[in-house]
Design brief:
It contains 17 helices and no strands. By secondary structure, it is mainly α. The N and C termini lie far apart (91 Å).
């Protein structure tokens, strides 16, 4: 077996962006010793190797022979994934614990083990498994520097820990974990839901639920616009109309009667996009109808614009928040800008139709 210890410590040190001198200071040795290790001139004692593995947050096996054990490590991760997907928990735990003992400081394996224990504990109601999941996920937080998945962050780890606490009835611990690790209100939906189900804490739920609703709406709106551009580029106009109609119905459900809100500006833009798509489909009558509705809503909004959440259904008594966009200063400006450049290859006939509608409406007695 060929050891790749020298190559690995050099790669890990550079990954951490520390010099040989800084590494030597951490390990309590000379810079010359670090140099010899990295050049394979000498090898430290096993106790020092264990200390180095702990510092970098990797297993000893991985540190001294990554090439040899990488296939085994990959097999273990695949097995953990298979167990999770198939829910084949029966009789697996001795093997899982053996893998965790073999790779006690490997982030991917520790995290995968923690998630597996969480899911199994939730489904079976086994408190022991949930406690084990908290232990593993907490340890994974200390190994987060090894993580190479851009979609995974320490915030998600704390969310998983909170879910385990909630599942085992440790309600206060779960809520506190979520509140302490809630950047940009990412966990407001879970916090709001949990508070609303607790008779003693329901009064505290509204700000979190409101924040989650507004964030969800903004995210959904951007997602829909993305789909529209994708569908139009494929000339799948029917799907573009369907998803725009869905989003229009959603916004209408949040509108408070007789009150203007920034959702009206968004609704006007959706109708304008519907008009643009219908025009591409050769259905000028439907395009004209959508653009007329869009202009009517935009004019009403611009007459008394509101960019706060106060006039949105279900957001009563919530802290006011403001909406921003870079599409246009007014709703009418936004429609003109979208029709001119938001969709691929805007047609002259569409821009002419919009100008005609604006002129006939403004010229009406």
């Amino acid at each position: 077996m060929k050891s790749s210890f020298s190559e690995n410590i050099k790669a890990l040190r550079r990954e951490r962006r520390i010099t040989q001198e800084q590494f030597a200071e951490v390990m309590g040795v000379s810079a010359g010793a670090i140099y010899k290790w990295e050049q394979a001139i000498s090898t430290p004692d096993i106790e020092v190797i264990m200390e180095i593995a702990g510092f970098f947050g990797v297993s000893v096996d991985a540190l001294v022979g990554y090439r040899m054990c990488s296939n085994d490590r990959g097999r273990i991760l695949q097995e953990l994934k298979r167990i999770k997907l198939e829910k084949s928990y029966e009789g697996c735990w001795d093997e899982v614990e053996k893998w965790l003992r073999r790779y006690p400081n490997d982030f991917d394996i520790v995290y995968a083990g923690g998630v597996l224990y969480t899911l199994a504990g939730i489904e079976t109601g086994d408190r022991t498994q949930l406690l084990r999941s908290v232990d593993l996920l907490s340890h994974a937080c200390t190994l987060i520097a090894q993580n190479r998945d851009p979609k995974l962050s320490e915030t998600e780890l704390h969310r998983d820990i909170a879910i385990a606490y909630l599942a085992m009835g440790e309600w206060e611990k779960g809520i506190e974990q979520l509140k302490e690790n809630n950047p940009c209100g990412i966990h407001d939906d879970i916090i709001g839901q949990e508070l609303a189900t607790n008779p003693r804490r329901r009064a505290d739920a509204l700000p979190y639920l409101t924040s989650a609703l507004l964030r969800c709406t903004a995210s959904l709106y951007r997602t829909v616009i993305g789909f529209v551009n994708l569908f139009v580029s494929r000339k799948d106009y029917a799907s573009a109309i369907e998803i725009l109609s869905f989003m229009s119905r959603y916004l209408s459900g949040l509108k408070t009667e007789q009150r203007v809100s920034f959702l009206d500006k968004d609704h006007a833009l959706l109708l304008a996009l519907c008009g643009a798509v219908y025009q591409k489909m050769g259905e000028s009558g439907k395009a004209r109808e959508c653009l007329r509705k869009a202009r009517q809503i935009a004019v009403e909004f611009d007459a008394a614009p509101s960019y706060t959440s106060r006039n949105i259904r279900y957001c009563e008594n919530a802290e006011p928040s403001a909406a921003y966009d870079n599409i246009g200063r007014t709703a009418m400006d936004s429609i003109s800008n979208v029709l001119a450049g938001e969709l691929e290859d805007p047609e002259e006939s569409l821009l002419g139709l919009w100008e005609e509608i604006c002129h006939e409406t403004s010229a009406a007695p």
